[in-house]
Amino acid sequence: MSEKRNPLLDFVGKLPSGTVLGNSGKTHCPLCMGLFRAPRLLPCLHTVCTTCLEQLEPFSVVDIQGGDSDTSSEGPIFQDLAHSLQPQIGILCPVCDAQVDLPMGGVKALTIDHLAMKDVMLESLRGEGQGLVCDLCSDREVEKRCQICKAHLCHFCCQAHRRQKKTAHHTMVDLKSCSRIGKAILCPAHPTEELRLFCELCDRPVCRDCVVGEHREHPCDFTGNVIHKHGDSMRELLRGTQPHVDALEEALAQVRDTHRALQERVEAVAADVRTFSEGYIKAIEEHRDRLLKRLEDIRVQKENALQLQKAQLEQLLADMRTGVEFTEHLLTRGSDLEILITKGVVVERLTKLNQVGYSTRPGVNDKISFSPWEKAGRCRGYEVYGAISTQEVDPAKCVLQGEDLHRAREKQTSSFTLFCKDAAGERMGRGGDDIRVAVVPNHKKDSPVRTTVQDNKDGTYYVSYTPKEPGIYTVLVCVKEQHVQGSPFTVTVRKRHRSHPGVFHCCTFCSSGGQKTARCACGGIMPGGYLGCGHGHKGHPGRPHWSCCGKLTEKSECTWTGGPSTARSLLRTVAL
């Protein structure tokens, strides 16, 4: 199975693992994988063969004018601008995919990587290539190098070179022991002249013919004189770049470490998931086996009970048939004397048979249910679900309980609880039964009250509703479309409970702080101009009561129906 790789990791894998050193020591093209042939240095500092670059598919970098646009009707200024914005041809670096804008001369106008050419030459001399041929005869392999002419010569041409008067004093070096070699770099404009000078204005090497020609008035100097200045500037840039290299290497190392830690963490979590899953699967399988064993035990228990009942009924049936057949035969075929002689035995037997008790219904039923979402405890430390039950709810055994079973208040929520039981009167230990509840006002039977049934998952159901108007309501509670015990029943809905606006006090004098104008609904008064009640005075009920309505029960509904003025005077009896 092929491994799915992350594209980002593939990109990271392409990055060099060591310090970035340009193309030093590199002799093979990254495309053709062969030794460099006319290598070109790209702006991204990657070197590729000229022929390999020419095979890359170019693309348009800037295309302002368009292919078929017509600018003849525009002014000359616009035409000049359009001409200056001609499409720029570019390619992508085959190593880093960087965009390379090609100069006007195309690929061959890119900078030649002479360092790569020298490395190729050195590698060829070491026997890792096809070998170098003589620069003079172009036929034999080179053996010597002229340090003055910068030419590679074979053995024959080397001897001839020494016999000539002009070159007899030139120093010849054996290439096999030479570590620094290189051909003379010739001027592209003047192929016979070597690049020995540097134009400061144009910032490029030039030859003697260039100095007397195109660069006549430009500041030029020998390369050996200007290399220190330009080399120092490059070294300064290198010193500024090297910290970035170190920082990137450190960042890359951190990325690799994080990637390694991520993989280790993923493997650890995957192991935890597998361990948990395997344990959970084993727990489920063990719980499954327990359920199947319980089911088998229930089957055996019910079948044994049915077999026992069947044997008892068959034996009783046989005894009954024997008694019936014998008695019928005696009565139809026997003589009077024969009947009278056997009467005692027959009557005793038939009497005993008639007194035998038996059930006409099976002693057990086929009610076996499975509740997949019922909690079944823990198995191997895991919470498991699913339970087998032989209980069946019996609507006739279900009961209703609650303080608000037969009373309610308008616009106040009332509730009661339904307890489901089986035929034996045992409480059901699970929920999930089909419960239907309807609360219908007797005066508006077409407008039932909205009810809510909450399954407590333990065989009980919490029923709540909110009547909107006072009156008599009929409540219907059904389980499996059958009325439960006590259903239907009526509920009296009274008006909303009215709270007391007054105070529950012992007397007006105490609760008002001795105010003469404070009144009380009990009707009691005190001498001296007091309008409210007082202990032992006329009208006082002799016990604490409400000042607003005179009721003697603290937790009661207010029945005051007085006007606004009376309310204000009664409300003044507030405890200080």
Verbal overview:
It is a single chain. The protein has helices spanning 7-14, 50-54, 76-84, 114-128, 155-163, 208-212, 223-333, 336-355, 508-512, 564-571; strands at residues 39-41, 47-49, 59-60, 89-92, 99-101, 111-112, 144-146, 151-153, 172-174, 197-199, 204-206, 220-222, 369-379, 382-389, 399-401, 407-409, 414-419, 435-441, 451-455, 460-465, 471-479, 482-483, 489-494, 504-505, 545-546. It has 576 residues and is α+β, with helices and mostly antiparallel strands. Strands 16, 18, 21, 22 and 23 form a five-stranded mixed β-sheet that branches. Helix 7 (223-333) runs antiparallel to helix 8 (336-355). The two termini are 89 Å apart.
Short description:
By secondary structure, the protein is α+β, with helices and mostly antiparallel strands. It has helices at residues 7-14, 50-54, 76-84, 114-128, 155-163, 208-212, 223-333, 336-355, 508-512, 564-571, and strands at 39-41, 47-49, 59-60, 89-92, 99-101, 111-112, 144-146, 151-153, 172-174, 197-199, 204-206, 220-222, 369-379, 382-389, 399-401, 407-409, 414-419, 435-441, 451-455, 460-465, 471-479, 482-483, 489-494, 504-505, 545-546.
Query: Which descriptor suits the 3D outline?
Result: elongated
Provide the residue-averaged pLDDT: 82
Residue runs with pLDDT of under 50 for 5 or more positions: 1-25, 63-74, 564-576
Q: What class, by secondary structure content?
A: alpha+beta
Provide the gyration radius in Å: 57 Å
Per DSSP, the total helix count is: 10
The fraction of residues in strands falls at 15-25%
Q: Percent helix among the residues?
A: 25-40%
Number of strands: 25
Distance between the termini: 89 Å
Query: Major beta sheet, specifics?
Result: 5 strands, mixed
